[in-house]
Amino acid sequence: MITIHLKYEIDPDRVEDFAEYGRRWITLVNRFGGVHHGYFLPSEGDNDIAYALFTFPDFASYERYRKQSAEDPESRAALDLARTTRCIRRYERRFLTPLDHPETPWTQAPGA
């Protein structure tokens, strides 16, 4: 299992545009076989940082999603929304493995 963590630096004057971008990607990730855990928009504190989390069964599934979404008209429209509104200034992507996943080596008891 692989969870993708995205940290976005967004334009605080374009939060609604970013929210629309996020709503589109939640649907798209789920359609392409992932499980989207949501977008998290600024509330208190920094007004220009947002997050997203979504999971795929494995890295190969994530790579298929990347390929399929690159060819998908709805995915391209979501990317165009971000480009034209400039709601995203930059982003960072991290790949994480949940600690409680049974295939994760560090969840096994010592000596197992």
From TrEMBL:
It comes from Streptomyces evansiae. Residues 8-100 form the NIPSNAP domain. This is NIPSNAP family protein. It comes from the Bacteria. Gene3D superfamilies: 3.30.70.100. SUPFAM superfamilies: Dimeric alpha+beta barrel. InterPro entries: Dimeric_a/b-barrel, NIPSNAP.
